[in-house]
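in:
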């Protein structure tokens, strides 16, 4: 039963943080959404920051799992990379709290936010590097330094993230991604 209560609090917090952001969401709001007293939240979480961290951690686990599952179903490095970016962008749209943790300047003062940002970026670089190395082993890619190339691609994706997530629908995202992939494949393909 306690795990159900914790999950109920997390669902309510995810909804409200996604809708109103960290700053405008109070623990009283979360308690109301979860249909329980505010003191019940303090039994599971020490503060709003603690609750937000739990929501963000859960969202990043979801993102990582969905990206891994999507890539695993692909048969070529080119398809893996395309699937990686599309899945990452689509899931990021759904995970508003995680996205806010990575981009909301207001959250920079929270101790865990830089850790979350760093961990997410490192995981992204590692995922891209693994795709590149798979392509090198299979003869599809010719990359002298997969680590540096993965880093450069991850930084480029970060720059494209906001316009793709906010100003774009799935059709535009796929069209833009196709152009980016053509450019990338010319640069790293054999």
């Amino acid at each position: 039963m306690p795990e159900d209560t914790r999950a109920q609090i997390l669902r309510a917090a995810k909804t409200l943080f996604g809708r109103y952001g960290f700053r405008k969401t109070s623990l009283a709001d979360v308690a109301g959404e979860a249909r329980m007293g505010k003191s019940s939240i303090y039994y599971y979480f020490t503060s709003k920051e603690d609750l937000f961290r739990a929501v963000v951690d859960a969202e990043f686990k979801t993102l990582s799992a969905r990206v891994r599952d999507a890539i695993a179903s692909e048969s070529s490095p080119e398809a893996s990379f395309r699937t990686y970016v599309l899945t990452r962008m689509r899931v990021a749209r759904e995970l508003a709290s995680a996205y806010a943790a990575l981009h909301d300047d207001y959250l920079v003062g929270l101790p865990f936010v830089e850790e979350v940002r760093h961990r997410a970026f490192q995981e992204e670089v590692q995922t891209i590097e693994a795709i590149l190395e798979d392509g090198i082993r299979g003869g599809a890619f010719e990359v002298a330094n997969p680590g540096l190339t993965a880093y450069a691609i991850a930084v480029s994706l970060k720059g494209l993230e906001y316009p793709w997530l906010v100003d774009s629908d799935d059709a535009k995202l796929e069209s833009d991604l196709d152009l980016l992939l053509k450019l990338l494949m010319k640069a790293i393909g054999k």
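note: The chain has two domains: 1-45, 53-188.
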